[in-house]
Amino acid sequence: MRISVNGGGPAGLAFAVFAARSGRDDEITVWDRTGAEDTYGFGVVLPPAVVEVFRDADPALADELSGHVADWDRLTVHRHGRSASIGAPRLGAMDRRTLLRVLRRRCAELGVGLVRGAVSPAGDGYDLVVAADGARSVTRGQRAQAFGTTTRQVGVDYIWLGAGRAFDNLTFLIAETPAGPAVAHVYPYGPDRSTFLVEAQGHPAPDELADWFAGPLGGARLLENRSRWSRFKEVRNSTWSSGNVVLVGDAAHTSHYSIGSGTRLALDDAQALAAALCAQPRLADALAAYEAERRPVVEHTQRVGRLSAEWFADLPDAPVDRLMSDLATRGGRLSWRDLTEGRRAVPIGG
Questions:
Q1: Topology classification of domain 2-70+94-153+234-317+332-340
Q2: In the beta sheet, which residues pair with residue 175?
Q3: DSSP 3-state of 101
């Protein structure tokens, strides 16, 4: 089978690795419209348990990824000059560039074709087209009506920044401003780096944000990389395949960043699609089986993400002890069943 993977992010590259290691005799090409180092963002949440997604298919790759994960098992809330911490399920994160670099190298070692700075030409005889080109997927957009794509804005405006220091664990920093509380979602992803995603009203400049969070930053700089204020857009599709085109990762669905599940969902999609192609001789049956397995987990995670976003948008004026007790269930919006339903527990932050 000739397979075109449109998009060189985690979902597309991971699928290519899984498919190449499956034992099938497929010809796989990944088309990445960006350059090798032309990527955005900072650290992505990648819990140690999620790295095990790769274990059965490629143990050496799992070992290498594990070596790059900064992990933690505590959660901290800081407000009004006070901090409170509790134990939490073990989570982790790694540099997005490093994740992509490792996956690209493994694809090359497995004989996967990698074409950078270009998009897949249309109508050149591929048996399967995997749309892994993100929330703004061009591939999906060419068949938007067939996929039944809908989007809606969730939560409040945010900006994705980095910090020039490694915080100890997942930390929520709350600064009081004339326009209301500003919330920074912070987690380490390297020896001297953290993701620093801020929700606030009025689109303040990074220098102003640095002043608001000066105490917890401890003199560290806020870092920018294609950083801009935006509103999270939840992507849904009524079907994930149309003919020989199938959606994975953010092209198929997005879930709010406050529950830290985007990369996990993308990797699970990639694994499930590769497994379905091995298990089902007919392509249509394989695509149907992939969607049947993944859709319930995804829709549950999206619902949890929406409820989480609502809680952060209406953050109560409460001391850190009260916020800490409310955080796991987002002020009673979520039940413990919500947090544990599905193949893996939904993270409580990130």
A1: FAD/NAD(P)-binding domain (3.50.50)
A2: 182
A3: helix
| Residue of 221, 172, 223, 166 lying closest to 190 (CA atoms) | 166
Cα radius of gyration rounded to whole Å, the chain? 20
CA distances from 230 to 88, 115, 150, 226, 250 (A): 29, 30, 18, 12, 17
Per-residue tokens: 264:
């996990």
Question: Are 197 and 257 contacting, i.e. CB atoms less than 8 angstroms apart?
Answer: yes
pLDDT 10s digit of each residue in the chain, 350 long?
999 999 999 999 999 999 999 989 999 999 998 865 556 779 999 888 788 878 888 898 999 999 999 999 999 999 999 999 998 888 999 999 999 999 999 999 999 999 988 787 765 789 999 999 999 999 999 999 999 999 999 999 999 999 999 999 999 999 999 999 999 999 999 999 999 999 999 999 999 999 999 999 999 999 999 899 999 999 999 999 999 999 999 999 999 999 989 999 999 999 999 999 999 999 999 999 999 999 999 999 999 999 999 999 999 888 888 888 888 778 778 765 555 454 444 444 55
- Phi and psi at residue 316, to the nearest 5°: -70, 155
Question: Closest Cα partner for 7 from 93, 94, 97, 100?
Answer: 100
Tokens of 4: 């075109």
* Tokens of residue 120, six digits: 């897949």
Exposed, middle or buried, 128 (CB in 10 Å: 0-12/13-18/19+)? buried
Contact between 227 and 160 (Cβ < 8 Å): yes
CA 62/CA 114 separation, integer angstroms: 21
Query: 61-92 burial by CB neighbour count: b if 16+ within 10 A, else e?
Result: beebbbebbbbbeebbbbbeeeebbeebeebb
| 29 closest CA partner among 107, 133, 122 | 107
Distances in Å between the Cα of 130 and the Cα atoms of 108, 133, 221, 229 are 18, 9, 39, 30
Integer Cα distance of 284 and 241 in angstroms: 9
